[in-house]
């Protein structure tokens, strides 16, 4: 399970959303469609916005510079 899916699962618990079927209903998609998204485990930016909306969250996507050898940030 990748970090994005883990975060969605954590936010579901925090939002008292007890099942994938309940999340699907909130998002206005079928449980089968949501299941396919979870199995694919590779979300588009649009899908991430849909999850954020359903979970009552803001979505922040950002880039940060990687550390190179010997460099401290």
From TrEMBL:
<dbReference type="InterPro" id="IPR001387">
    <property type="entry name" value="Cro/C1-type_HTH"/>
</dbReference>
<feature type="domain" description="HTH cro/C1-type">
    <location>
        <begin position="7"/>
        <end position="60"/>
    </location>
</feature>
<dbReference type="Pfam" id="PF13443">
    <property type="entry name" value="HTH_26"/>
</dbReference>
<protein>
    <submittedName>
        <fullName>Helix-turn-helix domain-containing protein</fullName>
    </submittedName>
</protein>
<dbReference type="InterPro" id="IPR010982">
    <property type="entry name" value="Lambda_DNA-bd_dom_sf"/>
</dbReference>
């Amino acid at each position: 399970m990748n970090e994005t899916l883990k975060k969605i699962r954590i936010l579901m618990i925090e939002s008292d959303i007890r099942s994938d079927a309940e999340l699907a209903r909130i998002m206005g998609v079928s449980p089968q469609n949501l299941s396919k998204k979870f199995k694919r485990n590779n979300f588009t930016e649009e899908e991430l916005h849909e999850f954020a909306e359903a979970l009552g969250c803001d979505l922040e996507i950002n880039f940060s510079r990687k550390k190179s050898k010997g460099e401290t940030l």
